[in-house]
């Protein structure tokens, strides 16, 4: 492997962990070393009690320019066993791991978001971009189709005609257009991006972790179910929350609303860490 330096950087602050793709000189194009380090980093953070929210972003003003064509493609052409291993690692962290992550995840997009970077973009739970960010499914322009799972996750997340248009043309589009067609939640002026992501992370931190985890998993899973399957799954999922929820969110939230009248669900969540107080009040 040609890279031995640390190409992933982690910052932790008040429960929010930011993971940086750290190859700014390559616009954070993804090399084999980066894939391995991202996979290991996300694995460790999922079990880290000090990490409540994970933000994915790129160092130096770019989210990611996609796969490093020289290192990931040409560099592995003559080593099919290693190429297969790296493809498995690259797909694992960008999809299986992030898509099923136990903790809320946010993509923070500025600069370039190209090709293979759409996998981690669409695997995270939320995505906010700068208005000036540049998105492109550019594979068609250099001779391949949107591979790995890119074509699949794109067509699953936006209207079919949008997916076909941008996949077949490879045209770049900005953050406002990415929000309009559904690749991200919304875009903001570049100078406000960090503040907007911090606000979203703060709002998520105030929710019950058990209920938030179950909710995001449920919404993802029911997408591929029929109505009967979804009904059974959601009933079982709702019951499962109550078995292993240290906050006892259902009872606590109900008590704060009905008995204490201390909050309104349409305006925000119940106050965490108050279970014993609620029980004493009954």
TrEMBL record:
Source organism of the structure: Pollutimonas bauzanensis
A GO molecular-function annotation: catalytic activity
Lineage of the species this protein comes from: Bacteria, Pseudomonadati, Pseudomonadota, Betaproteobacteria, Burkholderiales
Identification of the protein by name: Trans-feruloyl-CoA hydratase / vanillin synthase
Gene3D superfamilies cross-referenced by the UniProt entry: 2-enoyl-CoA Hydratase, Chain A, domain 1, 6.10.250.2850
Family classification: Belongs to the enoyl-CoA hydratase/isomerase family.
GO biological process: isoprenoid catabolic process
């Amino acid at each position: 492997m040609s890279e031995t330096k640390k190409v992933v950087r982690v910052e932790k602050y008040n429960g929010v962990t930011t993971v940086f793709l750290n190859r700014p000189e390559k616009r954070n194009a993804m090399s084999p070393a980066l894939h391995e380090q991202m996979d290991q980093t996300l694995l460790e953070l999922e079990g880290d009690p000090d990490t409540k929210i994970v933000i994915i972003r790129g160092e130096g003003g770019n989210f990611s320019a996609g796969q490093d064509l020289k290192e990931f493609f040409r560099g592995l052409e003559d080593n099919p066993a290693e190429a297969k291993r790296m493809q498995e690692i690259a797909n694992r962290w960008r999809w299986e791991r992030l898509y099923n992550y136990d903790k809320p995840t946010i993509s923070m997009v500025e600069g370039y978001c190209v090709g293979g970077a759409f996998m981690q973009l669409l695997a995270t739970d939320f995505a906010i971009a700068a208005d000036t960010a540049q998105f492109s499914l550019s594979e068609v322009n250099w001779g391949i189709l949107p591979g790995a799972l890119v074509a699949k996750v794109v067509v699953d997340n936006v209207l079919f005609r949008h997916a076909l248009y941008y996949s077949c043309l490879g045209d770049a589009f900005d953050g406002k257009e990415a929000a309009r067609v559904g690749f991200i939640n919304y875009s903001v002026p570049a100078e406000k991006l960090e503040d907007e992501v911090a606000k979203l992370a703060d709002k998520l931190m105030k929710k019950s972790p058990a209920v938030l985890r179950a909710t995001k998993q449920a919404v993802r899973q029911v997408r591929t179910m029929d109505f009967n399957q979804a009904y059974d799954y959601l009933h079982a999922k709702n019951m499962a929350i109550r078995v292993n929820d240290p906050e006892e969110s259902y009872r606590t939230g109900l008590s704060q609303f009905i008995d204490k009248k201390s909050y309104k669900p349409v305006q925000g969540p119940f106050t965490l860490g108050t279970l014993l107080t609620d029980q004493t009040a009954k």
